[in-house]
Specification:
transmembrane, Intracellular septation protein A, mainly alpha, transmembrane helix, membrane
């Protein structure tokens, strides 16, 4: 039987692991960019250097646990591609602003596609965490809840990507960095609350 206490324990562990990730992915790049703006030649260079921190963090983590983080690896590869495109296009900052929404939209589409083929990503994730009785995941009511959670996850990631594209073309690089983090944190908060409601508001039958 899938116990809510066990599910909450996994959530607390995920949150504990997520705090360092938030610092590395959101806080450090913002502070580093602010410090580098007056030192390096262009805003693009400052953005590239500050953006390299999360990419390096992903690589260090994978080497530490000896396990591939496919989503993190996708983000790191996208950042590398964005840097290359920026150099080839004359050093503009737009590729570095757009790689995040491209990755977010791609993940969102994959999540929605997983629901369409009845293999929701949320269900795969919880199975990999070995949360609760594995046999419970075969029940229709449980699979339906995970399908709803994955649909919310995918929709919010696509929305996050679209909003990031809008602010990338509307704001300066410095303001973009600030607002992009605000937008992402709001989306994550909505995602956590929505998924928590879907999975835990009612007891599994």
């Amino acid at each position: 039987m899938m116990q809510r206490a066990e599910m909450k324990q996994h959530s607390r562990q995920t949150l504990k692991k997520g705090i360092p990730s938030l610092v590395v992915n959101w806080l450090i790049p913002l502070v580093l960019y602010s410090l580098l703006r007056g030192i390096v030649a262009t805003d693009t260079a400052a953005l590239a250097i500050s953006g390299a921190v999360p990419a390096l963090w992903v690589i260090v983590q994978m080497l530490g646990v000896r396990q591939i983080d496919w989503i993190g690896l996708l983000g790191a590869a996208s950042f590398g591609a964005a840097c290359l495109i920026s150099v080839l296009s004359g050093g503009g900052s737009m590729p570095l602003k757009l790689y995040h929404p491209v990755v977010a939209c791609l993940i969102g589409v994959v999540a929605l596609a997983s629901v369409a083929i009845q293999k929701p990503l949320a269900l795969i994730l919880f199975r990999s965490l070995k949360a609760g009785d594995p046999e419970r995941f075969n029940k229709l009511v449980v699979r339906r809840k995970f399908s709803h959670a994955t649909s919310v996850f995918g929709s919010l990631f696509i929305m996050d990507g679209i909003v990031h594209v809008i602010i990338a073309f509307s704001l300066s690089t410095g303001m973009f960095l600030i607002w992009s983090r605000i937008v992402t944190l709001v989306m994550l908060a909505v995602l956590v609350l929505a998924v928590r409601y879907i999975l835990w508001q009612k007891k599994y039958d």
